[in-house]
Amino acid sequence: GNSVTQMEGPVTLSEEAFLTINCTYTATGYPSLFWYVQYPGEGLQLLLKATKADDKGSNKGFEATYRKETTSFHLEKGSVQVSDSAVYFCALTYSGGSNYKLTFGKGTLLTVNP
Amino acid sequence: NAGVTQTPKFQVLKTGQSMTLQCAQDMNHEYMSWYRQDPGMGLRLIHYSVGAGITDQGEVPNGYNVSRSTTEDFPLRLLSAAPSQTSVYFCASTTVRSGGSSYNEQFFGPGTRLTVL
Q1: pLDDT tens digit string along A26-50?
Q2: In this complex, how many residue pairs, one in chain A and one in chain B, have their CB atoms less than 8 Å apart?
Q3: In which region does residue A79 sit, left (phi positive, over 0), alpha (psi from -120 to 50) or beta (all else)?
């Protein structure tokens, strides 16, 4: 079945540091890949997405590239801010039929200190 | 648009009690789902529905019932609460498109934090 593995947290960085959160996946067919963000006390929000190989998703300074050869979708940001402190979830949907069911990784807690 | 709303925000139950978690959306989405979020486990799918009158089980359905009588509402019922059901519950909705590589953004509610004593 489909699965998502993302790096264990927590991750603690200083403001303006570079961020990478690794995500790899196992899926049949051609999944769509996503990063969701959960700010404290809130629900999940879509951060960015990529629907086919070599696509780059980007939003709010975050980027991730869909790498089919390495089955990866790593999240990066060049300079994090305190306001980026949140839990980040990598997720996929299988586009071969039930393309609305999300499979999530376990989440990575990011804390950014001033 | 209110988006996806959930009530209550917080709930404490005793073992064996029953309750219903409410979820509603005003975006005319066909697909609605319930997830539970537990520390170190990410979000796991409990039940989902692709339209009024149609429901199906997700990854962790035991102990939960759902029904979908309208497009807007998708309540989750705990018939006899157990401490293992202590969790944060999220409802989500999206449109349903067939095939291709298109993606439909899922919109999440703010969550219900449930504690079973």
Answers
A1: 987 788 899 999 998 888 999 999 9
A2: 62
A3: beta
